[in-house]
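[SOLVED] Predicted holo structure with magnesium ion

Edit: marking solved, answer below. Original request kept for reference. I posted the sequence and ligand SMILES and asked for the 3D complex as structure tokens.
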Amino acid sequence: MKILIAEDAPVNQLLLANFLKPYGECHLVSDGESAVERFRESLEETARKYDLVCLDIMMPEMDGQAALKEIRHLEKERGLHDGSRVKVMMITALDDSGNIMEALVKGGCEAYLTKPVSASVIQQQLVELGLI
Ligand SMILES: [Mg+2]
């Protein structure tokens, strides 16, 4: 599968890429704007379609919450709904109910993981999301 990882901290980028590499091709970006741009490009070509997007929340320029809303907006514009939408997993240090609710309810992410994450937590989520 194809995986887009948006994370601004180089150490976390490495960690996530290592955890996710066994499951597919990982593309890394460091901010929300680049994530949205990459995602937008991927919608133009079926072969480049992402199966999973992992979003950090605290990132420069555009944060993960805004990127999530933008991704869902792009999908909606193209008539993509529930079954055909990309699976989005938030992976963040923020564990307050405000952020969790915003991502799950308003944003429409499929999973919300709190850092630090482990390889087994990621694997379990991939199973729950039906990706592996
Ligand atoms: Mg961050």
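OP edit: The domain at 2-128 is CATH 3.40.50.2300 (Rossmann fold). Thanks to everyone who chimed in.
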